[in-house]
Every structure is written in structure tokens, then in C-alpha cells.
Amino acid sequence: MFKHIMVPVDLHMPPTVKKALDVAADFAKNHGARVTLVHVTDQQVRRGHTVGSSGDELADLASKVAAQTGAKVEGLPIYSVDVGAEIDSILSRTAKELEVDLVVMGTHMPGILDYVFSSHASHLVLHSETSVFVVR
């Protein structure tokens, strides 16, 4: 059913990202899908690798998920001048460009500000042409 799964990751690894990775790993294992871990960063990116420690962290995370699932897993760092302002459009555009079947994304429980400013996950649900599985 799913051939390509995208998982946006925050390398600080909040609990919701860990849960989203577990769900994506399960989907990948059960559907034989490949997984792309997308990390939006303000660090420079050269030849698909983040210059700095987060590049190694993303590669290690991709290797760990690959070992857990047996699936093909790659890390994709994407450079942004202003991560907070651009992340929503970057994730929507990246899902479309990668032609993924599913985005698995962690999010927090909504707070009062989420009724005024949507979370990144809710923005992706509303504006993506791809199916989005939100994990809390």
C-alpha cells in the first residue's frame, strides 16, 4: 500500500518524534516501503550532508531505522534561512517533490496558541496532497 514514507525529524528527539519513527518503521516493515527522514536545518548542506554534527546525527538515525526495519532509509537535510518561518512550506513541497505516499509526523497536544497558529503537523494535514499520519 505504501511505497515511500517521509518522516520529518527534529534531531533533539522529542518523544513525539520517537513515536512517529516507531510508527513509520512499523509501516515500512509491513509494506516494504522505503523511508526518507527529512531534517530542516539552518546549518549549511553540501552534497546531501549537513555540515556540522547534525549531519552525522541524521545519518546515524537513518542507519538505526534501517536496521530496525530492514527497509531502505535515507536522511535528507534541507537548508533553511529561517526554519521556524519556512518549515511548513518546505515540508509540503518536499513531500510533493519526493512523491511520497505517506507522511508520518509527530505532534504535541494542542494548546491555546494552536487555535490561533496551527502546528506544523496540522498545516501539513491541511495543505499536503499526500496522506499524513499524525502521532501524539
What does this structure look like?
The chain is α/β, with parallel strands linked by helices and 136 residues long. The chain has a single domain, classed as Rossmann fold. It has a five-stranded parallel beta sheet, sandwiched between helices. Strand 1, helix 1 and strand 2 form a beta-alpha-beta unit. Helix 1 crosses helix 2 and helix 3 runs parallel beside helix 4.
In summary, what is this structure?
With 136 residues, the chain is an alpha/beta fold.
What is the element layout, followed by pairings?
Blueprint: E1 4-8, H1 15-31, E2 34-41, E3 45-46, E4 49-50, H2 53-69, E5 73-79, H3 83-98, E6 102-106, H4 120-127, E7 131-135
Parallel strand pairs: 1-2, 1-6, 2-5, 6-7
Antiparallel strand pairs: 3-4
The tally of helices reads 4
What is the N-to-C order of secondary-structure elements (H for helix, E for strand)? Answer: EHEEEHEHEHE
| CATH class assignment | Alpha Beta
Structural class comes to: alpha/beta
Number of strands: 7
Largest beta-sheet characterization:
5 strands, parallel
InterPro entries: Rossmann-like_a/b/a_fold (IPR014729), UspA (IPR006016)
Family: Belongs to the universal stress protein A family.
Organism: Leisingera methylohalidivorans DSM 14336
Protein name: Universal stress protein UspA
